[in-house]
Amino acid sequence: MTTPTPHWRALTPADLPAMMAVAAQVHPGFPEDEAVFAERLALFPAGCLALADATGLAGYVVSHPWPLLQAPALNSRLGAIPAAADAYYIHDLALLPRAQGTGAASRLVELLTGQARAGGLGRMALIAVNRSAGFWQRHGFRLTHDASLDRKLASYDDDARYMTREL
Known about the structure:
Blueprint: E1 7-10, H1 16-26, H2 34-43, E2 48-53, E3 56-66, E4 87-95, H3 104-118, E5 123-128, H4 133-138, E6 142-143, H5 150-154, E7 161-166
Parallel strand pairs: 4-5
Antiparallel strand pairs: 1-2, 2-3, 3-4, 5-7, 6-7
């Protein structure tokens, strides 16, 4: 019997407990409060997606418009999406091991690229962690250094890299 391919769908408030469990497993060194994710979902639901498979939530993404070179601090509430947002920011992508290698992350990059373009944003940005920079580079992101981000990057770990992509 073939296992169904995981698929991306809208994240809902009911998904938050399962999302927190995925976050704890995938990003144990970067804990964020459920309230942070709930706020992002309320502020920009189109950018919050769940990866569903036959056994439940296998991953998620939280993304939203945000000013380039101004990454939000880890575990912080936004208050609002700034009117000056000029980039599409991927705040968090987490996949459980069972979803890795399924193509779900690559499909997601295509989905988010479409959202960014539809929103009139010509750039995407993210902070790569857990040695994921190579994945993002294969999808057109490049390392972008700006001294103003050094303190925020240090709040993650030595491997954290700010990356951008021109659309």
